[in-house]
Amino acid sequence: MASPRDRLEAVEAEESASRRGSSGVEVVFPSDPAFSAPLCPHGPTLLFVKVSQGKEETRRFYACSACRDRKDCNFFQWEDEKLSEARLAAREAHNRRCQPPLSRRQCVERYLKFIELPLTQRKFCQRCQQLLLPDEWGRHCEHQVMGDVSITQLRRPSQLLYPLENKKANAQYLFADRSCQFLVDLLSTLGFRRVLCVGTPRLHELIMSTASGDKKSNIKSLLLDIDFRYSQFYMEDSFCHYNMFNHHFFDGKAALEVCRAFLQEDEGEGVIMVTDPPFGGLVEPLAVTFKKLIAMWKEGQSQDDSHKELPIFWIFPYFFESRICQFFPSFCMLDYQVDYDNHALYKHGKTGRKQSPVRIFTNVPRDKIILPTEEGYRLCPLCQRYVSLDNQHCEHCNSCTSKDGRKWRHCFLCKKCVKPSWIHCGICNHCALPGHSCEGPKDGCFICGELDHKRSTCPNIAPSKRANKAVRKQKQRKSNKMKMETTKGQSMNHTSVTRKKKRRERAHQYLCS
Ligand code: SAH
Ligand code: ZN
Ligand code: ZN
Ligand code: ZN
Ligand code: ZN
């Protein structure tokens, strides 16, 4: 299981990277309309540029938009690299081979056959993560197979499938029931009739099962997700195999039209997009994608509605606030803490971290949103919005200033509220953790500011590490072919141990800060 801390660190790294201005790897979006990036199995690749000390390196490269780990997708190409016909053909063949074995239509046909079967013949192979038809049983007889798959179970595929645990690509963190139910109730109270679920399979299935059970709240839902396993459980009009980092529909135009029709139904009235992307993902490509979905929705509007915005819930950690608002200035952050099932640190309970850092960013007016008082949220009469129990109204800032749910403290020198654990540092001239290094990042690591390492070995660069590594690897391959495997293995092990230790310390520091 991917350690929850990895996710936390990835997130913090992006936070610190975005705070320090651009460092690490950035995505470039060429303005040329004729621009088309080479394709990997996950659709168009993204163009990356390595940035160090705030300066872009000149040589740019293409890499996979979806996979952060080269093990999952090893696409790499320098921007100026010319490929032979033979290599292009091989790449195309590879891309085809990587596509799912069944078309979307075939999946639907299987599903229809499956639900016709009597209960005793409905089997699910846990190893292959696949519903089995009777003529396939033989091939899975050595596997762990679950029998008597009920309609109720078919309606909750996120409980049947195991969550993907791939650390860097698409680790799945499923909503705790309480948070998921809160979202469904909120969407229904706000009067939405259609929900575009982008990377929220558990929300999708809860809406779908609520809709069929309770005629009153008949909300429709369409799931867009890269996890192809979900295609076994849904008809074409409720699931599209989709990559949210490049707006790629794996099933081409037909799937894109499903999405378009969904957004544009009723002239775009009554629809909202809810998304919970992987936190290690870069914010900018996501923003570019969401703007494309917004544009698709807008095309269906009549002229006089042109000032309206597509309502959006973007679920993401609170420390991305400035980054998200950079791309969507109308968004604000709700105090509601989103809890997860399979996330030890982010869920409530005895062992879990009490305060989840995950929030909802939205352009739905904050005064329309009621947070559950039974979970401790309360209305601030001055701000006219619901806040966490300990989020106190600061009379100097004239708002409820806490971002993380704890009671913040006003610093008169900084002229703003700061985390309770911070103290005002006369050298830095602002508040910071006690024990921070006052020299700042200049002589230490460019990314995290620590003095004991340089940026190249920073344990904090997880979000862009893969892309960085890709560059390093290419360089290494050229300069350093002779290195013996054993030594390499040993030295890598050693660094990874110390890195892990440092990471742990950093995560600890974050949790206690
Ligand atoms: N909390 C949500 C799940 C969030 S986990 C819920 O309970 O419904 C992130 C989700 O995004 C997963 O479902 C994962 O499959 C999906 N995902 C990851 N990378 C993606 C990509 N590149 N494009 C589309 N979906 C992606
Ligand atoms: Zn790829
Ligand atoms: Zn099997
Ligand atoms: Zn204040
Ligand atoms: Zn201060």
Strand order of the largest sheet: 14-13-12-11-15-16-18-17
* CATH uppermost class of one domain: Alpha Beta
Poorly predicted tracts of residues: 1-22, 349-353, 461-513
Helix content: 25-40%
The global form is globular
**Quaternary form:** single chain
Family: Belongs to the ZCCHC4 family.
Protein name: rRNA N(6)-adenosine-methyltransferase ZCCHC4
GO molecular function, one term: rRNA (adenine-N6-)-methyltransferase activity
Keywords: Cytoplasm, Metal-binding, Methyltransferase, Nucleus, S-adenosyl-L-methionine, Transferase, Zinc, Zinc-finger
Blueprint (SSEs and pairs):
Layout: H1 4-19, E1 24-28, E2 39-40, E3 43-44, E4 46-52, E5 55-56, E6 61-63, E7 76-78, H2 85-97, H3 104-116, E8 123-125, E9 130-132, E10 145-146, H4 151-155, H5 157-160, H6 177-189, E11 194-198, H7 201-213, E12 220-225, E13 239-243, E14 248-249, H8 252-264, E15 271-275, H9 283-299, E16 312-317, H10 321-327, E17 332-333, E18 358-362, E19 378-380, E20 385-387, E21 393-394, E22 399-400, E23 409-411, E24 416-418, E25 423-425, E26 430-432, H11 462-479, H12 485-512
Parallel strand pairs: 11-12, 11-15, 12-13, 15-16
Antiparallel strand pairs: 1-4, 2-3, 4-5, 4-6, 6-7, 8-9, 8-10, 13-14, 16-18, 17-18, 19-20, 21-22, 23-24, 25-26
Bound molecules: S-adenosyl-L-homocysteine and zinc ion (4 copies).
S-adenosyl-L-homocysteine binds at residues 66, 170, 172-175, 199-203, 225-227, 242-245, 276, 278.
Describe the structure.
By secondary structure, the protein is an alpha+beta fold. It has helices at residues 4-19, 85-97, 104-116, 151-155, 157-160, 177-189, 201-213, 252-264, 283-299, 321-327, 462-479, 485-512; strands at residues 24-28, 39-40, 43-44, 46-52, 55-56, 61-63, 76-78, 123-125, 130-132, 145-146, 194-198, 220-225, 239-243, 248-249, 271-275, 312-317, 332-333, 358-362, 378-380, 385-387, 393-394, 399-400, 409-411, 416-418, 423-425, 430-432. The relative contact order is 0.11. The radius of gyration is 24 Å and the shape is globular. Among the domains are: 23-98, no CATH class; 100-149, no CATH class; 167-369, Rossmann fold. Helix 6 (177-189) packs across helix 7 (201-213). An eight-stranded mixed sheet has the order 14-13-12-11-15-16-18-17, with helices on both faces. A hairpin with a 4-residue loop joins strand 21 and strand 22 (399-400). The structure holds S-adenosyl-L-homocysteine and zinc ion (4 copies). One zinc ion (ZN) is lined by residues 411, 413-414, 418, 424, 430-431.
